[in-house]
Specification:
By secondary structure, the chain is α+β, with helices and mostly antiparallel strands. Helix content is 54%, strand content 18%. It contains 15 helices and 14 strands. Strands 1, 3, 4, 5, 6, 7, 8, 9, 10, 11, 13 and 14 form a 12-stranded mixed β-sheet that branches. A hairpin with a 3-residue loop joins strand 4 and strand 5. Helix 2 packs antiparallel against helix 14. The longest helix is centred in the last third of the chain and has 37 residues. The relative contact order is 0.18.
Length: 385
């Protein structure tokens, strides 16, 4: 029998116990893969956005509105080539399907986001149709929407002037991204801000945030400071940041995702260390006479230590790799099932951390039992002392 076969045979000598322990490891690394990918998405942000656009919101919160009268002042800042604006609509499709829906000025938004690709006649239709709406291709594919449909959508924030929260919009365009990164982000719905501004019950001339398109991304920091200084000590103080940082802060409105994920994983792996560590310790206790026989046959203390440590590595590696593999498949299925709206990609970054975790956990649960096996005295072990 080879050394590898010997390790595997010892690992599965108590099949029920080993299988249950492996299932614990698999579930822990399945949870690790999915949660770590979510954490990476929220903490890393879309790096491809760069700093070609700045987002200006109210200093207190992006939910506080800013007056549209700020547009000429922002456009007059050197280095700003175009100013667009966007208002969160709070759209609901059918009973309880949340939509990423914003009211925008069609032409300004088109100028600020050349990354969105759509036939020019559809952009014109969006600009000229007061009840017009355009949607990302991923959204249209998921709900089966077609150009020309009138789509009924409710708002959980803005009622119309008659008090009704039921709105209806004419779908006049379907946009897509210019490349793979942007195609994955074609998840938003845009409506004509002029129509929304006049029809909603809460007044006119306000928006949630401004989008400043820059001539030179290297000027982003200086322009940010200029904007915020311009409105300092005014009723409409601002906070200006890059689009990437804005997206991250938008997500963190619901809480510190990274901290939540870290505490969940800490609890999971602390419990897992106790389970696997107990399994390894019990396995060594049961085999004390056998380990003494190995030493009697000429195996060195280092060889015995290696056998026990290899069992711990094998158990953690088998369970960890299976768990990460299942997480990768499940993440792809979730992404496909959501029509790309939830991009749970268990990629190389997560796998790298996962492999490092497998190694660290193997040493943590196997080192003490392995050292005990190494220090066994043959006479004491065979005598049962």
């Amino acid at each position: 029998m080879t050394k590898t076969g010997f390790v595997i045979a010892n690992l599965f000598r108590k099949k029920t116990r080993t299988i249950l322990t492996l299932l614990s490891v698999i579930m822990a690394f399945l949870l690790f893969g999915l949660l770590q990918s979510v954490n990476h998405i929220f903490s890393a942000g879309p790096n491809f956005l760069g700093a070609t656009r700045l987002m200006t919101q109210a200093r207190v919160s992006f939910t506080s509105p800013l007056p549209l009268s700020m547009v000429p002042k922002l456009e007059a800042i050197p280095g700003v080539t175009r100013v667009a604006y966007s208002q969160w609509f709070g759209g609901i499709w059918q009973e309880n399907t949340q939509l990423f829906m914003f009211s925008v000025d069609p032409q300004r938004h088109h100028d600020a986001y050349p990354e969105w690709v759509m036939p020019e006649d559809q952009w014109k239709a969006f600009e000229n149709t007061r009840t017009g709406m355009i949607v990302g291709k991923l959204v249209a594919d998921q709900y089966g929407w077609k150009i020309g449909q009138k789509i009924p959508i409710s708002s959980n924030i803005y009622p119309q002037k008659d008090g009704s929260k039921a709105w209806a919009f004419d779908l006049v365009g379907i946009y897509d991204g210019k490349d793979d990164d942007w195609k994955k982000r074609a998840l938003n719905i845009y409506i004509n801000h002029d129509y929304f501004d006049e029809a909603n019950q809460f007044g006119k001339g306000r928006t949630n945030f401004f989008i400043l398109k820059l001539a030179d991304s290297n000027q982003a920091e200086a322009i940010s400071k200029t904007v915020d200084a311009m409105f300092e000590n005014s009723p409409d103080e601002t906070k200006t940041q890059t689009e990437k940082d804005f997206n991250l802060s938008f997500v963190k409105q619901v809480g510190d995702i990274g901290l939540i994920v870290r505490w969940i994983l800490f609890a999971v792996f602390f419990t897992l260390l106790l389970v696997v560590g107990n399994t390894m310790a019990q396995s060594v206790r049961e085999r004390v006479p056998e380990l003494a026989v190995l030493k009697t046959l000429g195996f060195s203390d280092g060889s015995v230590l290696g056998f026990v440590l290899a069992e711990a590595v094998a158990m953690c590696a088998i369970g960890g790799l299976l768990g990460l593999g299942i997480a990768t498949l499940l993440g792809a299925m979730i992404e496909k099932g959501s029509g790309g709206q939830f991009q749970l990609n268990v990629g190389g970054y997560v796998w790298t951390i996962g492999l490092a975790t497998i190694l660290i956990m193997s040493i943590a649960v196997g080192l003490l039992p392995a050292l005990r096996a190494q220090r066994l005295k043959i006479v004491d072990a065979l005598a049962g002392r």
